[in-house]
């Protein structure tokens, strides 16, 4: 990683002057900022050295792109569809008809050139800033491309928009997602990352949801287990606006995520859902922040984690209510299911309250499978593996039931089945949940 690579990326993007300056300033910070200290609370359980890019070269211009269409498998029937290869555009379907309504859905490289007036006020400013730490500076300096979605005021996009990203090779890939919803607009964006290789992914997501707008953002990660990933997902929610987010992870050897929602105007609300399934020696570390800066705001967080083998998870969730943010309603719940004796889950929910007229609750639980439940299901003719699979499906159902996207629910259920070493046919979940209700009723 050097200045020459920064210039190559800028040339590959055909960047306007303002973006080239931002990238060069980030490179200066990248060289001067140290890694976060391992004694810092946010990095105490995942040393930052595990996520460095030593020996890796940033991906400048991926070759080909035909394989990238595999990233849209399971989601391809949804349109409009944008396909990316290591951040670079590899194709699209259905985006042209959105432009008639003023909606822009394209790769970030194209957006920076052709829609600079929409991109410049928000990119690397609304959520992720290079001066935060060495990793965010690295992300901005070596950004490889990504997704841009803009919805003008009053426009409602009924169909889900899908961005499917294929990551390969052994280099550094730094994709970025920028979503801008103007007042009273509505949209759904599904972002999936998969691929091959063993590199490092440094992800940045900025969600700008202005007054009265509604956004649903779904992030699906099933990268190879040789890949390492760190990322920041930040939403800024305007007056009477709503953001629904789902972060689901099944791949990568190490993943470190910061998922944050800032409610800075009255009436804003945020729903934050998470579904994580790790096996073997995978390591997931997720920090969440529900930031209430204005009165009459609401947030609700539910993160579910299942662990197999010697996998480990870390959850640290903070609800922060600022002075004057009265009438806040904030809820936080983290549930962890250990499926093997060597699995480990650490959970640390926190409250930081500086107002006195509000309602906040937080809680976490770590539990193992109950032999009584398994025995009951086995008496109904199921094998032990099938019984465990059913309980895991039921464990995640609370998150899936909140998701009004059938194709995404089916995709998630299939990924759970693959983790369990099963090939359960899609559609069997309803029967599984019925048996689980029968188990609960018998206790």
Structure write-up:
The protein has 443 residues and is α/β, with parallel strands linked by helices. Helices cover 22% and strands 37% of the residues. Helix 1 packs antiparallel against helix 2, helix 2 runs antiparallel to helix 5 and helix 6 crosses helix 7. The longest helix has 17 residues. It is globular and about 65 Å long. About 1% of the residues have low confidence.
Domains (count): 2
Count of individual helical segments: 9
Shape label:
globular
Radius of gyration: 21 Å
* N-to-C span: 59 Å
Mean pLDDT: 91
- SSE-based structural type: alpha/beta
Features:
alpha/beta; 2 domains; globular; 20 strands; 443 residues; 10-stranded mixed β-sheet
In short:
This protein has 443 residues and is of the alpha/beta class.
List the helices and strands and how they pair.
Elements: H1 3-13, H2 17-32, E1 81-85, E2 88-93, E3 104-107, H3 108-114, H4 116-119, H5 134-141, E4 145-151, E5 161-167, E6 172-173, E7 175-181, E8 186-195, E9 200-209, E10 214-221, E11 228-237, E12 242-249, E13 254-263, E14 269-278, E15 283-292, E16 298-307, E17 312-321, E18 328-338, E19 344-353, E20 358-368, H6 371-378, H7 384-400, H8 406-419, H9 429-442
Parallel strand pairs: 1-5, 4-7, 5-8, 6-9, 7-9, 8-10, 9-11, 10-12, 11-13, 12-14, 13-15, 14-16, 15-17, 16-18, 17-19, 18-20
Antiparallel strand pairs: 1-2, 3-4
Helix pairs in contact: 1-2, 2-5, 6-7, 7-8, 7-9
């Amino acid at each position: 990683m050097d200045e020459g690579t920064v210039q190559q990326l800028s040339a590959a993007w055909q960047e306007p002057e303002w973006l080239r300056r931002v990238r060069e300033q980030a490179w200066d910070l990248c060289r001067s900022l140290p890694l976060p200290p391992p004694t810092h609370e946010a990095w105490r359980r995942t040393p930052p050295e595990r996520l460095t890019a030593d020996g890796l070269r940033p991906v400048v211009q991926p070759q080909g792109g035909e394989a990238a269409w595999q990233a849209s498998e399971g989601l391809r029937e949804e349109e409009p569809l944008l396909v990316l290869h290591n951040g670079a555009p590899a194709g699209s379907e259905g985006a042209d008809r959105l432009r008639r309504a003023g909606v822009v859905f394209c790769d970030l490289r194209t957006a920076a050139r052709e829609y600079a007036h929409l991109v410049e006020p928000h990119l690397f400013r609304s959520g992720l800033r290079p001066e935060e730490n060495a990793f965010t500076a690295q992300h901005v300096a070596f950004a490889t491309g990504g997704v841009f979605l803009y919805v003008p005021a009053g426009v409602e996009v009924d169909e889900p928009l899908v961005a499917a990203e294929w990551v390969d090779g052994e280099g550094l890939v730094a994709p970025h997602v920028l979503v801008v919803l103007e007042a009273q607009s509505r949209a759904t964006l599904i972002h999936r990352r998969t691929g091959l290789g063993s590199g490092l992914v440094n992800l940045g997501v900025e969600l700008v949801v202005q007054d009265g707008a509604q956004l649903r953002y779904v992030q699906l990660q099933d990268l190879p287990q040789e890949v390492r990933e760190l990322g920041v997902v930040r939403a800024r929610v305007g007056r009477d606006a709503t953001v629904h987010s789902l972060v689901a992870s099944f791949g990568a050897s190490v993943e470190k995520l910061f998922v944050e929602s800032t409610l800075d105007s009255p009436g804003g609300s945020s729903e934050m859902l998470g579904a994580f399934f790790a096996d073997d020696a995978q390591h997931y570390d997720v920090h969440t922040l529900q930031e209430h800066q204005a009165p009459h705001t609401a947030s609700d967080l539910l993160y579910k984690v299942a662990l197999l083998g010697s996998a480990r998870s870390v959850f640290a969730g903070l609800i922060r209510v600022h002075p004057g943010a009265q009438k806040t309603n904030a809820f936080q719940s983290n549930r962890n299911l250990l499926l093997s004796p060597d699995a480990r889950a650490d959970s640390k929910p926190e409250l930081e309250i500086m107002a006195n007229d509000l309602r906040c609750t937080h809680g976490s639980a770590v539990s193992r499978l109950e032999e009584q439940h398994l025995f009951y299901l086995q008496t109904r003719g199921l094998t032990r593996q099938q019984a465990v699979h059913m309980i895991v499906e039921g464990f995640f159902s609370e998150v899936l039931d909140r998701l009004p996207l059938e194709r995404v629910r089916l995709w998630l259920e299939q990924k759970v089945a693959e983790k369990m070493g099963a090939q359960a046919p899609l559609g069997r979940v309803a029967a599984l949940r019925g048996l689980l209700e029968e188990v609960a009723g018998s206790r």
